Amino acid sequence: MAKAGKKREGALEVIRGISAAGNTGMDRVIHERMRLAIVSALAVNPSLSFNELKRLLGASDGNLSVHARKLEEAGYLTCSKRFEDRQPRTEYRITEKGRRALARYLDHMEALVTAMKDREA
Amino acid sequence: MMDSGRSHQPGRLDTHAEANLRFIRDTMERAGVFTAVPGWGTLAIGVMALAVAIITGGVWNDQVWVGVWAATAVVGFGIGVATTMRKVRAVGLRMTGGAGAQFWAGLVPTLAAGALITVVMARAGQVDLLVPVWLLLYGAAVLTAGWRSVRVLALMGVCFMVAGALAPFSPSRDLSMAAGFGALHVIFGFIIARRYGG
């Protein structure tokens, strides 16, 4: 109950923030669609290679590598490169920090939806 | 279009947040199904098929031979379904959403066609021809279901189809069954388990 109340209050702050300054206080790194997709895909897999992520998300090489690098810089992903059957394989894993960021983002969205419904009711 | 006023803001935010949640859920589901191939389950099916191939090597009655392999196929399918569901559930997902439905839609019709053809051919006494038919249809089913999954699954489907194409030239039907449903499952099961975690 206390947690739900806290979430709702957080969401109301978000709404107030948007109204006042156009600032949601949202995690900008994860909010971008491609980055959100990368983090979501890695959250349910121990690791995924560059090519697997590319196929799964329908991304281009350039687009995927740019966004993956941003997530890596934020500490949300780790990237390891190795050779497998003489072929280079780039593998990504989500970090604990990335997992927490995704959980926070999900909480944020859920709280927002709840708060909006409460406000409309 | 510009927002006309503050009263519309809540509705819009609500829609955006819900769309984002849906997007995350869909991506997780697709990603979960993408690697949901059960490595150890596939390997277990292969070991079972190898054991059955050794047993059926001494079976000369065609009806019994078909019956044993039909029962093995049912058990194998059960192992495949159970281990796939277990792997998907382990990450809190389900196989009944859009991505899961696509997987089953690729797999089940071809396997059902194989079951029907088995009945017709067994009744017609064309048991030896069943081996290439089974391998080809199973390969086609795995290839279709695995198209939106990891590449190794599609490759496994192709290998089964090649095994099916070579089966008519094999000296023994049990050797073809052991090489196809046994060895290929063991090899690819091991690769999948190592690479995609169980």
Short description:
The complex is a heterodimer of chains A (121) and B (198). With 121 residues, chain A is an alpha+beta fold.
Describe the structure.
The complex is a heterodimer of chains A (121) and B (198). Chain A is of the alpha+beta class and 121 residues long. Chain A contains six helices and three strands, in the order H-H-H-E-H-H-E-E-H. Chain A has helices at 2-21, 28-31, 33-43, 50-57, 61-73, 96-120, and strands spanning 48-49, 77-84, 87-94. In chain A, strands 1-3-2 form a three-stranded antiparallel sheet. Chain A is elongated. With 198 residues, chain B is mainly α. Chain B contains seven helices and no strands. Chain B has helices spanning 9-34, 39-56, 62-90, 98-123, 130-145, 151-166, 173-196. In chain B, helix 4 runs antiparallel to helix 5 (130-145) and helix 6 (151-166) packs antiparallel against helix 7. The model of chain B is unreliable at 1-10 (pLDDT under 50). Chain A binds chain B through residues 15, 18-19, 33, 36-37, 40-46, 48, 51-52, 55-57, 102, 106, 109-110, 112-113, 116-117, 119-120, and chain B through 6, 9-11, 13-14, 17-18, 20-21, 23-24, 27-28, 30-32, 34-35, 91-93, 150-151, 196-197.
Features:
heterodimer; A: 121 residues; alpha+beta; 3-stranded antiparallel beta sheet; 6 helices; 3 strands; elongated; B: 198 residues; mainly alpha; 7 helices
Q: What are the SSEs and their pairings?
A:
The complex is a heterodimer of chains A (121) and B (198).
Chain A: H1 2-21, H2 28-31, H3 33-43, E1 48-49, H4 50-57, H5 61-73, E2 77-84, E3 87-94, H6 96-120
Antiparallel strand pairs in A: 1-3, 2-3
Chain B: H1 9-34, H2 39-56, H3 62-90, H4 98-123, H5 130-145, H6 151-166, H7 173-196
Helix pairs in contact in B: 1-4, 2-3, 2-7, 4-5, 5-6, 6-7
